[in-house]
Design a protein that fits this description.
single chain, 263 residues, alpha/beta, Rossmann fold, 2 domains, six-stranded parallel sheet, four-stranded parallel sheet, 11 helices, globular, binds D-glutamic acid
């Protein structure tokens, strides 16, 4: 069982920003990755649709022997992680915007959150603010369009810059000194984002924390692999050729073949 793979999924390629942290921290683990790119963006879909997709993908990964699941998507975690945990008795790691670390890090007392509409609307996000924001002012900004850019492999250029300026301007004007990247697609836009921000703005994301949480859970269930890891398996419900083209931009792992996901 220990040598079985860890199953990771997202609405698309964003979860690769989490997958790379898992690969870095846990090189002995075999990994399976599902990009649900045929249904991207989750951020504009109903919680019911996201739950139904998450259930189908979880079953697909379990049928391929997954010993643990990582929901590498803030939006799917908000909509579906409780349902997945109720259905399956294996470690299931979800993720949420890094409100707690950002609230400790801010010096201005104002934190900005860039995330999807679905995440920002969710009850889980409201509960996160209640629990961790304390006296810190949290300003939120939905970012339609950014996910689609990353899905196309468009990580810089005039269109990306215009969107990033539009979405960060109100947060900077509100006095934010710490910006949470609350969607797993956004870390891939850091190189385009950083030059648009004052030098002292901190960017916070949760990929590395999710990898550490996976390590803790695998150890707790005595499921840590010894290795060597098998080649990572990739599936997409979208256009395979697009993922095959975009993958080398986002994934430093070994060359990979993408298979068709038909669930
Ligand atoms: N990458 C996802 C997240 O972390 C969702 C993006 C989307 O499909 O809207 O929220």
């Amino acid at each position: 069982m220990r040598e079985q793979p860890v199953g990771v999924f997202d609405s698309g390629v964003g979860g690769l920003s989490v997958l790379r942290e898992i690969r870095r921290l846990l090189p002995a683990e075999s990994l399976l990755y599902v990009a649900d790119s045929g249904f991207v963006p989750y951020g504009e879909k109903s919680p019911e649709v996201i739950s139904q997709r998450s259930r189908a993908i979880a079953e697909f990964l379990l049928a391929r022997g997954a010993k643990a699941l990582v929901v590498a998507c803030n939006t799917a975690t908000a909509a579906a992680v409780a349902d997945l945990r109720a259905r399956h008795a294996l470690p299931i790691i979800g993720m949420e915007p890094a409100v707690k670390p950002a609230s400790s890090a801010t010096r201005s007392g104002v934190v900005g959150v860039l995330a999807t509409t679905g995440t920002l609307r969710s009850a889980k996000f409201a509960a996160l603010l209640d629990r961790f924001a304390g006296s810190v002012k949290v300003v939120t900004q939905p970012c339609p369009g950014l996910v689609e850019c990353v899905e196309r492999g468009e990580l810089s250029g005039a269109h990306v810059t215009a969107l990033l300026v539009r979405y960060t301007q109100p947060l900077l004007e509100a006095g934010c000194d710490t910006l949470i990247l609350g969607c797993t697609h956004y870390p891939f836009l850091k190189p385009a984002l950083q030059p648009l921000l004052p030098a002292d703005i901190q960017l916070v994301d949760t990929g590395a924390a999710v990898a550490r949480q996976l390590q803790v859970k695998l150890a707790e269930f005595d499921l840590l692999a010894q290795g060597p890891a098998a080649p990572t398996g990739f599936w997409s419900s979208g256009d395979i050729e697009v993922l095959q083209r975009v993958l080398p931009l986002l994934w430093e792992g070994q060359a990979a073949t993408v298979q068709d996901l038909s669930v």
